Amino acid sequence: DVKVTQSSRYLVKRTGEKVFLECVQDMDHENMFWYRQDPGLGLRLIYFSYDVKMKEKGDIPEGYSVSREKKERFSLILESASTNQTSMYLCASSLTLGWGRNTEAFFGQGTRLTVV
Amino acid sequence: DQQVKQNSPSLSVQEGRISILNCDYTNSMFDYFLWYKKYPAEGPTFLISISSIKDKNEDGRFTVFLNKSAKHLSLHIVPSQPGDSAVYFCAASANTGGFKTIFGAGTRLFVKA
Q1: Do A104 and B94 touch (CB under 8 A)?
Q2: Does residue A32 surpass a pLDDT of 70?
Q3: How do residues B86-109 score in pLDDT, each as one tens digit?
Q4: How far is CA B67 from CA A100, A105, B88, B103, in A?
Q5: What is the dihedral of CA A60, A100, A72, B45, to 10 degrees?
Q6: Contacts A103 to B, Cβ<8 Å
């Protein structure tokens, strides 16, 4: 079974802090993603990576950056946390990109971040 | 402007009956659709998918129907079980070069025993 592990289940940070969310997958997937989930908005893609050191912006990249130094690890960075970044953050990985079989994403358990 | 819409925030069904979860999309370029299930305090898990070359895909108690002309898909669960109580997300992607999967807002299903 694919396992995607996020380092924290709950985090509380102060406005202006730099925040790191870590994610590790154990199935040698090329592709990794960061989403945020907000009520009424579903899952929105922040960034994704299709290879080590490669990254692409998703729908809402503003205020975030990512790092992928190793294939199994994908980090989301909030450069200066703000209250509107309070949300559930979900990391995911997939075997292939785009269309069809093996594109389904495997998600971590989520990190609920509260910025005060 | 949401390209994938799940207009029912919640649905309540009696155990043993059929659950029908609906999803509408606006982008005619979408040609692959997925359903995910999410329990509280867990990440979403993939449930079933369908490509635009089909109008139905079945996997055990779960069937997804696609109506391309109406830009509508639905997930049927028969028979519904209390363990099916979860949030269901519809997602859509396009084979247009470059990755793009759009998720709906989700529908919370309650299956009453």
Answers
A1: no
A2: yes
A3: 999 999 988 765 567 889 999 999
A4: 18, 24, 19, 18
A5: 80
A6: 32, 93, 101
DSSP-derived 3-state class of residue A90: strand
Residue of B76, B100, B72, B75 whose CA lies nearest to B89:
B75
User: B14 and chain A: CB distance < 8 Å anywhere?
Assistant: no
The residue assigned the tokens 């990249």 is A61
Asked if A97 is an interface residue toward chain B (Cβ–Cβ < 8 A), one would say yes
Instruction: Give the 3-state DSSP-derived string for chain B, with helices as H, strands as E and coil as C.
Output: CCCEECCCCEEEEECCCCEEEEEEECCCCCCEEEEEEECCCCCCEEEEEEECCCCEEEECCEEEEEECCCCEEEEEECCCCHHHCEEEEEEEECCCCCCCEEECCCEEEEEEC
Tell me which residue has tokens 């867990």.
B42
